[in-house]
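Minutes, project check-in
Item: structure for the 531-residue chain
Input as provided by the requester:
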Amino acid sequence: MTSLFLILIVTVIFTCVWLNRISARIGVPTLLAFIVLGIVCGNVGAIPLYLDNHDFAKNVCSVALLFIMFYGGFGTRWESVKPVVRESVLLASLGVVVTAALTGLFCHFVLRWGWTESFLLGAVVSSTDAASVFSILRSKKLGLKNNTAPMLEMESGSNDPAAYMLTAIMISLSNGSASGWSLVWMVFAQILFGAGLGYLIAKVASLVLRRVHFSNDGFDTLFIFAVAITSYALPDVLGGNGYLSAYIVGVMLGNEEFRGKKSMVGFFDALTGLMQVLIFFLLGLLARPSLLHRAILPALAISAFMLLVARPAAVFGILSPFRKYSAKQQCLVSFVGLRGAASIVFAIMAFTGVGNLNHDLFSIVFCIVLISISLQGSLIPQVAKKLDMTDSADNVMKTFNDYSEVTEMQFGSLDIAKGSHWCGKKVMELALPGNMLIAQIIRGRERITARGDTVLLPGDRVVLVTKAFDDSETFLLEKTVRKGGKLDGHAISEFQSDGLILLIRRDDEEIIPQGDTLLRAGDRLVILKSR
């Protein structure tokens, strides 16, 4: 049974990888493919993966969302978002409130819903989804003018805490468990414990990263992983906004300089991608196509209102007073306000937290998310070009912490032998390439900073610095010379291959090969090859 379950899991994973490639080619957000896959697995086949436990789904998705929120901060480059931080924070807070309020009013006066249920729906769908937007911008390498991409990144990465707080308030009101003072304390505690503990946790974690040297590779990543969990769990236990705390900790640690940070960005990028897949796949498993036909019409009406009225009203109302954002730019910011993972999690929270809902809120939010990422998401590149907001000279990757403006450098070394071409010469006399520099000279136990008039002596080890080379088409492989094989006893010059032998490992010795170097059985050759 365990083996069959594992086979099922890897089948789903392989299907997800395949859907990822297909969706990238046709320009549809990848996450849409995972929803469809979840629907198919949950409702089709001889043994469908039927899931009807919303409490289980809520707990899993809440954990997944904390990592999404943490990486929303950790992957954001403060240098890029700093010019638009005021606008982004306003959109992520006041913009969420305005969107939720207008959507709630629409549900009450147009769809004739009750007051609390109307504003509960508005709160659930009030935040925008960074993953859906930037999966499009990254896959299409779509640069945007006037700091639009950094604004979208920070807004969509930081607006979930506000939507979570509104959802928690509306759940309390719907259950009749909230009074005036309790609501005031809830808002105060959410902000105070969320922001305050987030700041303290980030400071402590930063101090540990600077002072403690982890003995094994990977333990620093494990430490950050634990910090991310703590940043959510500790404030949440005290009544604070765990998602706000996780985002603040992510921003502060993501913009600190410490060993191994770039590899952590890659780790959390992959982890967050997995969490997004998990949420959307669970959404598909929970969905019941037999119930969706009742939710389609209200979902279409709410989606149209949010796209044409609620979101533009929030964006234009906030950005217009700054007087530096054109109407076209504000239209684009309005259009890319996609609903995604957070809306799904909050919908499940509302479904499990409120026992007397008059409408199938989960199915309606499901349809809204589906419409948003399929229709709006697919049209983002075309709308950006139509509004003349694309900028081929701008690199959208500059918004993220895995982008490096500083060219990666790499060290190498060279031993100066007596009689060699460099022996006895000054550094200034060497015909070095423009992208290479002698950084240091190791002479016995002495380390000498290389200057133009420094003379190289026999026995010196020269430390060279040059621009690193990273190319997916070029790679290294290792090959062992077999006894009696075609390489055994032959010189390097006789080596017939499309690669280049860079190094020979012979017992405990490492040999830099020359053309007349003879190969022996047991030699391990490090070969540079191209695909």
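Outcome recorded: The domain at 2-398 is CATH 1.20.1530.20 (Na+/H+ antiporter like fold).
No further action items on this chain.
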